[in-house]
Every structure is written in C-alpha cells, then in structure tokens.
Amino acid sequence: MTILFKSKHVPMLLSNPPSKTQTRRSWKRPKVRVSRTYWLSTTMITRDGRFGKALVKRGWWEMLGEISTSDAVDEGYGSQAAYIAAFAEISKKKEEAVAIEKVYCLDLEMVAVVAGKKWCGSCGRQYAKAAEVSSCDGCGRAFFAVDTSHLKEVEV
Ligand SMILES: [Zn+2]
C-alpha cells in the first residue's frame, strides 16, 4: 500500500517542522494500519514518484465537514473552509457533497526521505539531487529545495 499525494503537498510533508501531518481519504474501509509505515508517492504507476516513508500514528472516521480548526491546520490549511474547498477541488466534487462525506483520517509522522532526490519548495516537483536547477520547470519560480536534512534517507 502506497499513500498518494499531490506534488504541492510534498514540501508540506517533508519540511521541518512539517506543515502537513494529516490526510483524509475517501475510502470505503481503512487501507492502512496504525503503527505501520508506508511509502508516500505522487504516482501509483512507478516507483519514481516515491518521496518518503511515514508512520501512521492514528486513524479514525469523520465527516469531512466536521473537521476541527486545529485539524484543518494539521492538514496544512488555514481554516476548515479552506481545507474543504481544497478537498473538493482535488476530488473534483462539489463542496456541499464532500462536506457530508465520511472520510478516513490519518495522523502521519515522516520517518524517512527518498535518497538521491530533491523537491521544489514551492510546487514539490522532484529533481535528482545532483541536478542544477535555477528556476523550477514545474512552477517557474526561483528554485529552492525543501530542507530534508532532519529525515533519514531511504532507497526506493
Ligand atoms: Zn516548483
């Protein structure tokens, strides 16, 4: 089991301290177990999208619209409304529809980062660690890499 994320969430998960430690999923049943570690990736197709490993610290069911303000912050957003809007956009559904969706919530703790890679601090686009990047191909901004020095490196 690999937990998928949008590229824009990669810097939030990998930074120190992380600005995102929770995720909510439209699952019918839990696909991960508490106290186990899982690969995090931006694609299911290949291993290339893997960016790290995380420990699932807690899992629980909740109505998406009932997210607390502090959990919305742990999701990496400023408010409940901002989080619900982002979830609706990612899942291509209406906000009213996602608000009443029962979702599986995860508390994550990053335990490792993939070796030999670096990620744009703005958009999360992945590069080889040795690549010389001045402006990011993904977002066009001046490139700076997410500082992942607090995480141990792991081979994919
Ligand atoms: Zn970028």
Outline the structure in words.
The chain is α/β, with parallel strands linked by helices and 156 residues long. 18% of the residues lie in helices and 31% in strands. The strands form two sheets. Strands 1, 2, 3, 4, 5 and 8 form a six-stranded mixed β-sheet that branches. A two-stranded antiparallel ribbon has the order 6-7. Strand 3 and strand 4 form a beta hairpin. The longest helix is centred in the middle third of the chain and has 12 residues, at 80-91. The mean pLDDT is 97. It binds zinc ion. Residues 120, 122-123, 125, 136, 138-139, 141 line the site of zinc ion (ZN).
- Specify the number of helices: 4
Largest sheet: 6 strands, mixed
Predict the CATH topology. Sulfate adenylyltransferase
Order of helices and strands: EHEEEHHHEEEE
Overall CATH architecture: Roll
Identify the CATH homologous superfamily.
Sulfate adenylyltransferase
Bound ions, cofactors and other small molecules, one mention each: zinc ion
Estimated share of beta-strand residues: 25-35%
Number of domains: 1
Q: How far from one another are the termini?
A: 14 Å
* Helix vs. strand class: alpha/beta
Overall pLDDT level: 97
The level 1 CATH classification is Alpha Beta
Rounded to an integer, what's the Rg over CA atoms?
16 Å
Instruction: Give the proportion of residues in helices.
Output: 10-25%
The shape is globular
Low-confidence stretches: none
Total E-strand runs: 8
